[in-house]
Amino acid sequence: MNTPEVPRLSATDEPEPAPAGDPALVAPLAALRGAEPEAPAWFRAAIAAPHHRATVAVEGVPIEWLAWGPVGAPGLLLLHGNGANADWWRFTAPFLAADRRVAALSWSGMGNSGHRPRYTIDLFLAEALAVAEAAGLGPRFAVVGHSFGGFPAALLAARHPERIGRAIILDTPFGLPEDRRPSARGPARPHRTYPTLADALARFRWSPAQPSPNLFITDFIARTSLKPVLGGWQWKFDPFLWQQFRIDARDNLLSAVRAPLDYVWGEQSLLVSAGVVAAVRRLAPPGTRFVAIPEAHHHVMADQPIALVATLKALLA
User: Fold this and answer.
1) Can the peptide bond before residue 177 be classed as cis, meaning omega within 30 degrees of 0?
2) 265, 299, 317: which is closest to 80 by C-alpha?
3) What is the 8-class DSSP label of residue 190?
């Protein structure tokens, strides 16, 4: 099966006007008018936890990566979704790094990584392996892929089982029926420039829409997804990234996985329904473990971060 488009699973903002609806869903940060919400001590400590930030060149483009934990400990690579970046793991990664070397990358065209004239899944795999090497994850490491990141995570486990000790797929809708697959939202356009940071933050929204029970996390993710430009602020991700991108036979990726596999999803996710989970059970190799996180939506790390950490720790133990 060929898939004509990559679903927009984790975008932050689009240049068109915000849709009508519940303000808490379509503009969760607007009421703050640029002010930072109060955050609990655990979150502030996690954000302040010592970590290393660097880049590694892959096919001529700098790829941003962050790392926590001791070099030489078992490795863990965190792969984010569409429109996100490595900083989306900043408040969960330190909890996983007590006895692991943990790294997170920003895919090319996202975060502080460079942009390309054209993106391919093979380039993304090369970026993941290059970061694993640069961050010192060792010859064999585990990988967690959220949303779009679940596709390269599965491919790594299919093509490089000698490198992948375990692959954990987090709320990626493998097996979604063709008529329900998310698609790109029309022709790509350059990003809008917002005159102030407050204006830009007010335009942040989750895709797909979901509540923001931890507004301090929503605010942090929005701020780390923006960059200052001449005349104001813009979103970091390349708006033209998906124009010619393809993943062929993406559902077949699961049956091709040759490393231990786990599938984790949010029980309230709009992308992973009971039907999707049933399809994944048919597609995934024997021995795959399945874990649902209660009260979690698609962006599990944003609304149930502690439950996510506990789940990942248990699966990686």
Assistant:
1) no
2) 299
3) P
pLDDT tens, residue by residue, 27-64: 999 999 999 999 999 999 999 999 999 999 999 999 99
Beta bridge partners of 144: 78, 168
The CA-atom distances, in angstroms, between 95 and each of 66, 91, 98, 119, 312 are: 14, 8, 6, 32, 10
Q: At 138, is the secondary structure helix, strand, or coil?
A: coil
User: Under the phi-then-psi rule, with left for phi > 0, alpha for psi from -120 to 50, and beta for the rest, what region is 238?
Assistant: beta
For residue range 5-20, what is the model confidence (pLDDT) as tens digits?
333 444 454 433 444 5
Residue with tokens 């915000």, as numbered in its chain = 18
pTM of the model: 0.92
For residues 102 and 93, give the distance between their C-alpha atoms in angstroms, rounded to a whole number.
7
pLDDT tens-place string over residues 80-103: 999 999 999 999 999 999 999 999
Tokens 């001529």 belong to residue: 60
Separation of alpha carbons 315 and 317, rounded Å: 6
Range with the lowest mean pLDDT among 12-26, 60-74, 237-251?
Answer: 12-26
In this structure, are residues 164 and 142 in contact, taking their beta carbons and an 8 Å threshold?
yes
Q: What is the pLDDT of residue 249?
A: 59
Q: Is the pLDDT of residue 170 over 70?
A: yes
Nearest to 204 by CA among 176, 177, 233: 233
Q: Which parts of 69-154 are beta strand (E)? A: 75-79, 101-105, 141-146
For residue 195, what are its two tokens? 């005159």
Beta bridge partners of 261: 167
Task: Compute, in degrees rounded to 10, the torsion defined by CA atoms 158, 81, 56, 58.
Answer: 60
Q: How far apart are the first and last CA of the chain?
A: 35
Helix (H) or strand (E) holding 274: helix 274-283
Helix (H) or strand (E) holding 218: helix 215-224
Residue 138 structure tokens: 């060792």
